[in-house]
Amino acid sequence: MGHYSLETARSLDQSDSLSHFADRFYRQPGQLYFDGNSLGLLSKDAEKSLLHMLDEWKTLGINGWMQGDPPWFYMAEHLAARQASLVGALEHEVVMHSSTTVNLHALLSTFYKPTRYRDEILMDELNFPSDHYAVSSFLDRMGKDPDTYLRIVPSRNGRTLEESDIINAMTNRTALVLLPSVLYRSGQLLDMALLTSAVHEKGSLIGFDMSHSAGTIPHHLHDQQVDFAFWCTYKYMNSGPGGVSTLFVHEQHHHLGPGLAGWFGCDKKKQFDMDLSFTPSPCAGAWQIGTPHMLSMAPLAGSLDLFEEAGIISLRQKSLAMTGFLMRLIDERLADHHFTIGTPRDSGRRGGHVALEHDEAVRINEALKARGVIPDFRYPNIIRLAPMALYNTFEDIWHLVDILKEIMDNRLYEQYENKRGPVA
Ligand SMILES: Cc1ncc(COP(=O)(O)O)c(C=O)c1O
Fold first, then answer.
1. What is the value of pTM for the model shown?
2. Is 105 near ligand 1, meaning CB less than 6 Å away?
3. What structural domains does the chain harbor?
4. Disulfide-capable partner of 289 in 20, 212, 262, 384 (CB 3.0 to 4.6 Å)?
5. Looking at residue 103, what is its pLDDT?
């Protein structure tokens, strides 16, 4: 098997049935964007749907709530339903609402109901810090000291988790397990089906933070009987900075209702009765609290057109081909430069990005940025590189590794300070 070359990249692009989608995005000339796992790029479709929303506000004013196309009153349900097939949910099991972390709080308020016998939450030490802050503060507010009631599964290597360690860490006191679908640093994909059935067998509930997998990996939330999930849409789904999050509540739990109620969680038919007693919506819509953030949801309408056209199965296939290509180029072309790939190689165990570890990661990251590459850095030693199936090319990946090779061969990173910015 020969080494990969620029020609390999070009021929992969030529045979790529999704390559035409790149033209629908604002790719900046001279820039190689590899940070779609933090903030996806703007598509022309998303721009159009945002402008459409502004125009409706301009022309309809308050009437947009019922006369908008689609009516704003149903937008959070409507745009979530359009994501249902991406995550394997039924349409009434999802709704868009607020930010990811707020949704975790809202879901905990329903799913963490400690009893005399079961009162612990199980998490892992590699989950995103905001999830830890949310769970700890939630427990605190319930009068349960997180040092006692929050059990943390350690990682054996600081990068990945063993599903068996998670399952073995459960005790007969575990009420709830909260895990990431894909780990934000290493990009490991956990076996959600295995974990969900093991957690249920032990009589507990399970929820997933799918921020790093929604829009890049097909999920089966309903069929796998995941109890709840939540994700942000500004990463792989390209909804824009601070784009509204989406949550999933399995239909078997809809009767539980929200713990943090607000008027947008009302049954739509009753919301404007202005009753002082709360009648929850019969679906996941009940977990909304206040007025939906229309302008922060609007770009997703256009963005979802692209997902519907491309299909999540094809997007996943291309994403795996791209991360596979990137890892092989790193192996072949950067072998002498002491990089470690922290992402599992097995395609069933990795998400949409590659975590490149190096002792000089901060300075290498700066050198990449100075040469028009947009990666991201995660403390202390990880450069995350996410080739996006919708708008990156195999040739982009080739040039990225070429630039990286030049930086390493000539030790160009030494010209940069070993100092990270406040957003890194
Ligand atoms: C895995 C994960 N969970 C939660 C969050 C927090 O999301 P939000 O700022 O929307 O609350 C992020 C943000 O990047 C994330 O990557």
1. 0.97
2. no
3. 6-44+310-408 (3.90.1150.10), 48-308 (3.40.640.10)
4. 262
5. 98
